[in-house]
Amino acid sequence: MIRIPRSVIPNSFTVFNMLAGYMSIVFSVNQKNFVLAAWMIGLAAVLDALDGKVARITNSSSKFGVEYDSLADVVSFGVAPSVLIYQFYFINIPHDIGLIFSFFPLLFGSIRLARFNVQLSGFTKTHFNGLPIPAAAITIGSYILLVEKYFDGEAFPRILMSVTAIVSILMVSNIRYEVFPQISLRGDLRQKIIFSLLLVFAVLIIMFPYMLIFPVMLFYLGSGLVTSAFMKTTQVRKRRNIKKERRTGGERRYRSEYIEEDEEFPEE
Question: Which residue intervals of the chain are DSSP H helices?
Fold first, then answer.
C-alpha cells in the first residue's frame, strides 16, 4: 500500500499558488487581460496564506516546504506582477527604462525571500522584517484593478511608478510588519470585537473589491511605517533615560564618596 506523506497536502496549495501566478503571466502577455491577471495574483496570495496554515494543522512543516514555497512566491509575487505592470504600461517607455523599472518587484522580491529564508528560525513568525512579497504584489495588482474599473485603464504613470518603487524598497527594508493575529469568537471580549470588525470589513471588501483593496493595502503599508517610527522613538527615549540615570547615579556616587572623604579627613 502506497503511503502518501502529510506534506503533500500543504505542498499542493503551493503548487496551485504557482499555477495561479503562471496563469497571471499568461493573461498579461497573451490576452492582455490585466484584470484577470491581477485577480490571479490575489488568488495566489490566498493559496500562499493557506499552505502555511494547513502545514501547521497537519503538523507537516518542513524545510523543503519553506524553500518550495519561496520558489512559488518568486513566480506568483515577483515575476507575475513585474510582467503585469510591464504589459500594462511600462512597455510604452522607450530605451528599456520601463523594462528596468518593471523588473523592480521581481528583483527586490527575490532578495526579500532570500533574506527571509536565511533569517527564518523555526516555522512560526511573530512579525516580518520588511514588507511581505505577497502584500507588495497585491498592492500592485489592486492598483491595476482600481484604474481598470473606474478610470478606463488610465495608468497614471507617476502614481504607478511611485507605488512600484515604494513597495519594492519596503520589501528590502527593516520596517516591521505584523503577522495577521490569530483571533476567534472563542477568545475574550476584545478578540470577539476584533473578529466581528474584521468580518464586517471582509464583507465590504468582497462587495466592493475594486474600490477597497488598494486603499486597504496602502493602509497596511503605512501601518508598518508608523509602527516602526513609534518603536524607534520609544527605543531612543529609553536609551536617553538609561544614559540620564547612569549620569545621575554617577553624580550621586561621586557626592557620597566626597562626603565620606570629608568626614574621614576633617579640617583642623
Answer: 8-29, 34-57, 63-74, 80-88, 97-102, 104-119, 133-150, 157-171, 189-207, 209-264
Instruction: Tell me if 59 sits within 8 A of 102, measured CB to CB.
Output: no
Alpha-carbon distance of 211 to 150, in angstroms, equals 8
131 φ, ψ (degrees, to nearest 5): -65, 125
Contact 45, 138 (CB under 8 A): yes
**Structure-block grid coordinates of residue 206:** 468582497
- Nearest 10 degrees: CA dihedral of 83, 86, 87, 92? -160
Q: For the chain, what are the domain ranges?
A: 8-214
**136 vs 166: CA distance, rounded Å:** 9
CA–CA distances in Å: residue 101 to residues 30, 141, 201, 225: 21, 16, 34, 23
How far is residue 72's CA from residue 11's CA, in Å, rounded to a whole number? Answer: 10
How distant, in Å, are the alpha carbons of 7, 20, 22, 52, 70 from that of 10? Answer: 6, 16, 19, 7, 13
CB crowding 62-89: b at 16 or more within 10 Å, else e:
eeebeebbbebbbbbbbbbbbbbbbbbb
Average pLDDT by consecutive 10-residue portion of the chain (268 residues)?
74 95 97 96 94 83 87 97 97 91 96 88 72 96 96 94 96 87 63 76 89 94 89 83 74 58 52
β partners of residue 129: 176
Which residue, among 65, 164, 51, has the nearest Cα to 105 in the 3D structure?
A: 164
For the entire predicted model, the pTM comes to 0.84
In the three-class reduction of DSSP (H, G, I as helix; E, B as strand; rest coil), residue 159 is classed as helix
Give the span between the Cα atoms of 112 and 118, in whole angstroms.
10
8-214 topology per CATH: Four Helix Bundle (Hemerythrin (Met), subunit A) (1.20.120)
3-state secondary structure at position 130: coil
